[in-house]
Amino acid sequence: MIYDQARYTEDETKHEPLLSEKDTSTVEISDTDSPLPEDLTRDDLTLPGLSEPELARHYTRLSQMNWSIDSGPYPLGSCTMKYNPKFTEDVAADPNAAIHPDRSAQSAQGNLGLLHGLQEYLATIGGMDAVTLQPPAGAAGEFTGILIAKAYHEHHGNDRSEVIIPASAHGTNFATAAMAGYDVVELPSDEGGRVDLEALKAAVSEETAALMLTNPNTVGLFERDIVEIAETVHDVGGLLYYDGANLNALLGRGRPGDMGFDIMHYNVHKTFATPHGGGGPGAGPVGVVDELAAFLPTPRVRETADGDYERFEPAQSIGKVHGFAGNWLVVVKAYAYIARLGDAGLSDASAKAVLNANYLAEQLEMDVPYGPFHHEFAATAGDRDAADVAKRMLDFGVHPPTTKWPEMVPEAMLTEPTEIESRRTLDTLAEAFNNAYSDTDEAIETAPSRTTAGRIDQVDAARNPRLSWQALDE
Amino acid sequence: MTDTDGSPFAPHTAEETAAMLDSVGVDTEADLFDIPDEVAFDGNFGIEPRSEQAIRGEMRRLFARNDDLTEFMGRGHYSHYVPSLVDHLSDRAEFLTSYTQYQPEITQGFLQALFEYQSMLVELTGLPVANCSMYDGATALAEAALLADRVRGTSGQTILVPELLREGKRSVLENYVDGAGLSVESYPMDDGNVDREALVDLAGEETVMIYAENPTVRGTIEEGLSEIGELATDTEALFCLGSDLVALSLLEEPASVGADVVVGEADVLGLPTSYGMGLGIFATSDRFLRQVPGRLVGVGSDVDDRRAYTLTLQTREQHIRKERATSNICTNQAWVALRAAIHIASLGPDGLVDLAEDCVRDAAVLAERVDDIEGYQAPIHDRYHFREFVIHTDQPAAAITADVEAEGYAIHAIDDHLIQICLTETTTHATDGLVDALQEAA
Amino acid sequence: MSFDVPDDLSYLESHEWTTTDDETVRIGVSDFAQDELGDVVFVELPAVGDEIDAGSAFGVVESIKAVSDLYAPISGAVTAVNEDLFDQPELVNDDPFGDGWMLEVDPSDDSEFDDLLSADEYRDQIA
User: Fold this and answer.
1) Where are the domains positioned within chain A?
2) Of A343, A374, A433, A453, which is least packed with CB atoms within 10 Å of its CB?
3) At what positions is N6-lipoyllysine found (chain C) (predicted)?
4) Is the pTM above the cut of 0.90?
5) What is the rounded CA–CA span in Å between residue B410 and residue B407?
6) B-chain residue closest to C68, CA distance
7) Chain B partners (3+ C-beta pairs within 8 A)
């Protein structure tokens, strides 16, 4: 397959002009009938203001120069780019749900009911006892989880200073631990690519607040020693944190709560199919075991004796991690998705995700050093540059996988097709991989040539940052 | 046709599954999983799958349990009319189902939209660097405090915030700064605005950042912002100003009053009332460029020498810098930013300024009407107001809000004898009814 | 690949180099380092007059894909900073031992030079 992406080119210098290049006007506040004295207002405002037909053209064209899950395969490892069901959009757009978060509980029974319902669904799916839906993204969920761990330790009079994180973990884990004020202890993996149990035993101590783990890990391997890992951490009084990025591999097959995890976050924009929207919004609900429920952010929702819903503040709540209730619209879509799939669908999602990954890897010419993997695998581009191979894949109608991460696989191409790809698409995807991988040096170094833009000079963009149209005029 | 058991979004037929299993060399799907028996789960969540049709009905009935009230509410989450255009354009699957632009060559569309959004914020704030979104105003404030801590030369530890800062916002700020060893302290208000004299007394060597909002959470418009800017310069603290997109169109330009960072709510445009879902503004000056959290879209050129957009300065971010990143933020509110940008472009500067001026005018008119009702004194602050104002009530506020709710209107009770009302163009049609209800409840 | 390792310089394991020219010590990063980093986009340096401490980070060098701390080989007061690097960070890549120099320092403790790696020792390290 060849993919020629739309390319609107106004002239040889640019593609679609900026809004500011189409129409800009200035309003002098003093020319308006301002109800405020001049010293309390700005002088003027200069912005584009286009008619509806012009805006429709502008954004429609922009959308045509943009790849998406609905365009074709998007096998980014650890991102779980699965299809976003359309009906969830309609559910979230229900006008009755468009209420203010400060509404009295009795006047908001619908929304509180939804929140309660998703709390319950996620608790069951993760094997947790209590869930908060407030964190507005996975990283925010991680931060919430680590704050809960911190509050727990402080409550018990324990002064702990370290969080242990595998070297292969996602960057957010490290950044989260540092934001919470912890020192990071990096854990190497063993030859098989999993947590080095001996290294872990040497790393845990009375300073260990938590071990953060992704399972399966970021090369798709299940931590076989998870029970012993949990024991090792619990024995020193530490907590075990589950990064939910790879939960799609476990749905229905294993639950973090049953493995010994005390705290987990869910990435609903991954596992539960809410749309990624060009980078967000997502949501990162957090689940905890009973012992930690009192520390969850406030408010949570519970059912009253009469079958109504009420908000309440957990006894030792850490407070808030979002100004209001989190990313409401996203949370609604996640609920609808789970309801659509049910037990059979959730288990099937993980089964087909794992089958698709294994089938795809089978068709590739690249080696996959670590296995047995589940829903994602890290192929290696060997002596070719993974980033260049990826750029060439763009010309073949697929989005490439994540490249050059995790570092334990050189020239990594971390690939996660998800369960939504058919066999036919997987064959096309494999062909794109193989064609790019075996293409000439020149082809991969000059790629892409069929996308809207050719290869972009990242160095110049970083050396001379221009972050607004105002900067272009300077 | 696909199998009807299992996920409706996995397209495999039984035949395909069998062929794929065969190709991989295993007998069953279960054989592909390397999960030890002791932690295996049998798949019984007890969640019954329902059809699309059934779920839509179920959730329609669920949301119908919300009372149908006309909301005169604000305090950080506002309702303005969002043109249909915004939905139809931002809902295009190429935008909605796309991802972070890690391969910019194939995602120029969204990158350009975000670049345009950043530019709009640059104009509105007067500051040259704006990122393409934070989660909400509260977390943006928190990130500003962390930035202030990183850049401030001396070893101060205090973030000064208004006494009237919304409690939830303060809690978020405290959670974020705790790990950096900072503490949050309030300064008093003077009739709804910053008590500048008291602030001057409080601010000193210990101060890392001074935060003020314009308008405040009570809707009052600030009058001495440049003095705060000067104070911040004198104490070498950062001046962080919180606002929202509509207010920024009319009120004093943050850069002109000495703001170093602007945070706040951008979801006032592009997003209708959404139970508090937000979009955080983050804008700052050039000298803090490398300390900015979140994603930045920049301009460069491609191999054909055409202008091209790309995420840039990514070395600040968690995926490269790990524990030394400026923030742990990864997923942001990009799609909400797209919506805000479309809305701004559709209003244009005239539409925006008109809207903002209405927010001042209409609040003043309503306040006068309420003040005329016996049992109410409005507004309690002798200030200009933006969208909302606080009212003193002779009767207990809780009783009044309950009565008013029974009549079909939702307002805020903020203290024993204080209520707050917010008015936008989405509710001006209902002010007569509200006034009547207040009269009844007095 | 063979990297340039001038013999008249001393080195740190972390790839910084120093030279002595009468009382002035110049500091920069090695050819190996600039190759590892890739195209340098930004260099953050202290101000003239600042004190740097041997073994501690004095600045940051940034490329598209990485950010690295710069470690001081010796202690002393900064007497000069290569201002050209602000507009032309690529000098670090093009001429790491010449025009890509970063700092000049007035050393406070000459004995620290003994702790540095010789050109041979550094060559062995990067081999």
Assistant:
1) 86-340
2) A343
3) 65
4) yes
5) 9
6) B321
7) A, C
